[in-house]
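A quick aside before the break. I want you to see a complete sequence-to-structure record at least once, exactly as it would be stored in a machine-readable document. Don't worry about memorizing anything.
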Amino acid sequence: MLSLSKVTKYFETPRETVQVLNAVSFSTSPGESLAITGPSGSGKSTLLHLIGTLDCPSTGQIEIDGMDPFDLAEPDLAAFRNREIGFVFQDHHLLPQYSVMENVLMPTLAFGTNNDKGEDRARTLINQVGLSHRIEHRPGELSGGERQRVAVARALINDPGLLLCDEPTGSLDQARATEISDLLFELHGKAGNILIAVTHSQSLASRFGRHFELEEGTCAEV
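That is the input. The structure line, written in tokens, reads:
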């Protein structure tokens, strides 16, 4: 379960206080998919970062599985984020010196959880994203669409309950964007997780079960 209650975010500048989000509230359950759209500067990425515990709200509360992750000490919060939340960004953020297999396994190394079971899951995911023939290749040897497929597999390696995507198809041409969209929904269906994506693409947003629009800091379901 994911629940946001009157979440507000503002930033202090030398001249003024800038409010980005204003009393955002919604909840969603495992198996649901949710798209967030809105004009540039409306707070979409800020909201995704708050949900992903990369930043904390100024006021209000975010609960994941009935707990407020911001009550955790920073090391425990980092471990919680690594275990419970997967991220897919517009830029794949793969490490260029490592192979496909090594990049997918990277989240399992952060807290010493890598083992034979992790490697078996990595191979399964790499096969599911259609890159078993590229498993030892490095990012520089892959196309843009293939690199984003690796990023999707990496995001799912710890079987997170929450998968967050920030413009996951924004850097791809239409054909590759459709491939990645199809892949995200296929794997989301198998995992039964919560899938949330920030996107400018109305065609991508239309594929989600729920659609929220952000404008001037407020969030409404459409």
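Two observations worth writing down. The two ends are 21 Å apart (CA to CA). The chain has a mean pLDDT of 92. We'll return to this after the break.
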